[in-house]
């Protein structure tokens, strides 16, 4: 018997098939468990409970999803009075006396998986994907996930507490599992090849009357396992705040009965929702979603499909960029004038993929396919039909112009000509072509196949189609594409120059490279400005400084002194630090400290001994924020959130501070503005508050004010 109850506008539908009630979530696009859907689910569950004709219930989702979980926007708000959450859905299933089966097609994430875990059984399709990704937003599962997953996995995998380990790892990583591994772990009871709902109905019918509640399972977690887990995650103030809380919640699955366990889980969840690291992660999530929104860009200019690509220059960047295309399934041809570089490039590509195979990240066939999709070719004729070319030759305007003129002649008329320049003027490069509207900057970061940031630089004549294509290409290449105007250093490096400027002035005033790097690392960066200079190359910075626009204040010359001594950084074994052969660990170098002291003396600066870590962090970070504000005012960056994405993904700014601009909001823009005004008088005229900083100081913030919480 089939009885369908479609309710127009309701986020679900329900029908009874042979005594089994099938509830189908239908809240496009991902069946997010909104308050409305949660409320409707609770009503359906209660109705099924009251209906004697219903012997079992199947919960499933429409459109190839089970459910993507709770609505991120709603985390902090909580339901309107009388509204329902996933916790209510889970509680209603828990209370029910009937048998529940989850039929999982596609993703069951967060609250979606928690709902499925509240059921007695879970049947997945081969496309099922299950995960508890809350940690990625600085949260923990808040609807029983931390209590049910360890109970389930520990029971299914009792040997040597393997299941507890699996649960810990899965929630700490936040990565979803595909159907097969999920079945192997015991999260899914079965994988149904055909119609997963039909199979779940048959299964539910067969099992009707059997209850298999995970909440009733009793497990043991040896205390050392919890202690070890705490020892393996970052400290609470270094991005590990939620991870430690998650481990505490998981421990409760063994220490407490279910009711007390979920109460503890919810207390922790609420505490995390209002914590700054979580708010920073949520900010980043939304900032990334905004990246593609470009005001004023014609929507008619649809992105073009990129089927073939080319790269000019087989150096560090060119080879990495070629692999980025190969990884996205786009065949790519590489050209270099230097045969040695071609050989080096080929070897680099082969070695990189062989390394992936060795690490078990890729099978041999896939690696072979990727290697073969990167072709090294000899002449521009060979790339005449590509849709996009990325130039990555030396950072010299003359060389770039020569290459662009040749590309313009050789490539089909509508091909996009992109440059990977770090600092040069895109308009000047475009000026030697007959198609400046098709010229754009695609600024990858080193190593290109690893770093997630891609600045898309818009020239004065770049047309909407080219920008849309470049932004869509960024997505296809799995990069965070951030649109930047055409200014020296674009967004990221322009901010970097001010940050390094301030760090260098601090050296002149009395600090050492190690002291500064340590303070910046303590703030949360993986490395300080001087280890970073040594990594990128002091020679590279030196050359950039020669081409930088002139400023009306003095620049520090310490790095020039190192350059004159051939101390280029890691590549020469010494720079601001020294490096033992084959090692990347920077070692303090007294010679450098003598050079710095001599510079202070030459400039008549009395070295101070009272420079604190706080002063170092403020000077360097406020420089970033002020330049960020300047770029907003100049229209180079579209939004403060774009700058945050650039700095978190391109420069290692700690995500749990939300990027420099969001961090500025949390500590108070007015405080930063006032400090910069003071520094203008005490430190010099390089401190000029940007007009946008002043404006934000008056308004209270750059973006809507985040709430305060832990670590404020
Ligand atoms: P690199 O010196 O490693 O490689 C440059 C390559 O270009 C060399 O192999 C050289 O033989 C080749 N080349 C020079 N002239 C050529 C020509 N006319 N035709 C074809 N090939 C030519 O340099 P890199 O570090 O890969 O930098 C390349 C570009 O990427 C520069 O514009 C640089 O500013 C930019 N960039 C570099 C980094 C980085 O960290 N290295 C990061 C972002 C952007």
List the helices and strands and how they pair.
Elements: E1 2-6, E2 12-17, E3 20-25, H1 35-50, E4 56-61, H2 86-95, E5 99-104, E6 107-109, H3 111-118, E7 121-124, E8 129-131, H4 145-156, H5 162-173, E9 177-178, H6 179-185, E10 190-191, H7 196-207, H8 223-232, H9 241-255, H10 258-273, H11 276-290, E11 309-312, H12 316-327, E12 332-335, H13 339-358, H14 364-373, E13 374-376, E14 388-391, H15 397-410, E15 416-419, H16 426-430, E16 439-444, E17 453-458, H17 464-476, E18 480-485, H18 492-509, H19 513-523, H20 529-536, H21 538-547, H22 558-564, H23 590-603, H24 613-633, H25 640-651, H26 660-667, H27 669-682, H28 691-699
Parallel strand pairs: 3-4, 4-5, 5-7, 6-8, 7-10, 11-12, 11-14, 12-13, 14-15, 15-16, 17-18
Antiparallel strand pairs: 1-2, 2-3, 8-9, 16-17
Helix pairs in contact: 1-2, 2-3, 4-5, 4-9, 8-9, 9-10, 11-25, 12-13, 13-14, 18-24, 19-24, 21-22, 27-28
Bound molecules: nicotinamide-adenine-dinucleotide.
User: What would the principal axes of the Cα set say about the shape?
Assistant: globular
**Helix residue percentage:** 40-55%
Give the integer mean of the pLDDT values: 94
- The poorly predicted ranges are 706-712
> Main β-sheet: number of strands, strand sense, barrel status?
8 strands, mixed
């Amino acid at each position: 018997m089939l009885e369908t109850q479609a309710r127009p506008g309701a986020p679900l539908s329900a029908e009874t098939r042979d005594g089994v009630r099938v509830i189908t979530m239908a809240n496009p696009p991902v069946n997010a468990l909104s308050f409305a859907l949660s409320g409707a689910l609770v009503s359906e569950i209660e109705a099924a409970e009251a209906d004697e004709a219903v012997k079992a219930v199947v919960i499933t989702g429409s459109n190839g999803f089970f459910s993507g979980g709770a609505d991120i926007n709603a985390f902090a708000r909580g339901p309107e009075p009388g509204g329902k959450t996933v916790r209510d859905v889970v509680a209603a299933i828990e209370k029910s006396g009937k048998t529940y089966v989850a039929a999982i097609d596609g993703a069951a994430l967060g609250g979606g998986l928690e709902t499925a875990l509240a059921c007695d059984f879970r049947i997945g399709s081969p496309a099922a994907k299950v995960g508890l990704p809350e940690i990625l937003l600085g949260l923990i599962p808040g609807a029983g996930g931390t209590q049910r997953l360890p109970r389930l996995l520990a029971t299914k995998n009792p040997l040597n507490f393997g299941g507890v380990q699996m649960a810990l790892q899965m929630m700490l990583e936040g990565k979803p599992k595909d159907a097969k591994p999920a079945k192997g772990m015991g999260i899914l009871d079965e994988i149904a090849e055909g119609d997963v709902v039909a199979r779940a109905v048959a299964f539910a019918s067969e099992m009707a009357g059997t209850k298999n509640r995970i909440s009733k399972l009793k497990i043991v977690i040896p205390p050392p396992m919890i202690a070890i887990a705490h020892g393996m995650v970052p400290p609470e103030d270094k991005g590990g705040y939620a991870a430690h809380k998650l481990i505490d919640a998981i421990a409760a699955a063994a220490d407490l009965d279910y009711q007390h366990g979920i109460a503890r889980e919810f207390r922790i969840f609420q505490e995390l929702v209002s914590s700054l690291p979580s708010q920073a992660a949520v900010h980043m999530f939304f900032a990334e979603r905004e990246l593609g929104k470009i005001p004023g860009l014609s929507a008619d200019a649809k992105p073009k499909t990129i089927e073939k690509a080319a790269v000019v220059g087989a150096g560090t960047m060119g080879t990495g960029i070629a692999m980025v295309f190969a990884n996205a399934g786009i065949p790519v041809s590489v050209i270099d004038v230097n045969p040695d570089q071609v050989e080096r490039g080929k070897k680099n590509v082969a070695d990189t993929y062989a390394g992936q195979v060795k690490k078990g990240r890729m099978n041999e066939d896939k690696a072979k396919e990727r290697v073969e999709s990167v072709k090294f070719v000899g002449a521009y004729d060979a790339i005449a039909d590509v849709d996009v070319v990325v130039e990555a030759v030396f950072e010299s305007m003359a060389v770039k112009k020569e290459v662009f003129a040749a590309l313009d002649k050789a490539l089909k008329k509508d091909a996009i000509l992109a440059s990977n320049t770090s600092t040069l003027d895109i308009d000047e490069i475009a000026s030697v072509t007959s198609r400046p509207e098709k010229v754009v900057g695609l600024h990858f970061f080193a190593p290109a196949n690893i770093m997630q940031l891609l600045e898309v630089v818009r020239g004065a004549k770049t047309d909407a189609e080219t920008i849309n294509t470049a932004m869509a290409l960024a997505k296809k290449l799995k990069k965070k594409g951030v649109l930047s105007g055409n200014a020296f250093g674009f967004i990221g490096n322009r901010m970097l120059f001010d940050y390094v400027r301030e760090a260098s002035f601090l050296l002149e005033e009395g600090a050492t490279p190690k002291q500064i790097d340590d303070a910046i690392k303590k703030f949360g960066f993986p490395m300080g400005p001087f280890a970073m200079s040594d990594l990128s190359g002091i020679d590279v910075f030196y050359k950039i400084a020669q081409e930088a626009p002139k400023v009306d204040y003095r620049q520090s010359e310490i790095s020039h002194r190192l350059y004159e001594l051939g101390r280029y950084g890691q590549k020469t074994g010494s720079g601001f630090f020294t490096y033992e052969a084959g090692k990347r660990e920077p070692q303090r170098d007294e010679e450098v400290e003598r050079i710095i002291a001599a510079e202070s003396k030459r400039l008549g600066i009395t070295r101070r001994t009272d420079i604190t870590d706080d002063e170092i962090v403020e000077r360097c970070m406020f420089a970033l924020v002020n330049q960020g504000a300047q770029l907003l005012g100049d229209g180079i960056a579209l939004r403060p959130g774009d700058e945050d994405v650039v700095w978190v993904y391109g420069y290692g700014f700690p995500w749990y501070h939300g990027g420099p601009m969001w961090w500025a909001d949390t500590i108070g823009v007015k405080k930063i503005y006032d400090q910069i005004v003071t520094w203008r008088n005490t430190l010099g005229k390089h401190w000029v508050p940007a007009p946008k900083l002043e404006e934000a100081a008056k308004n209270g913030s750059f973006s809507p004010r985040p709430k305060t919480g832990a670590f404020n």
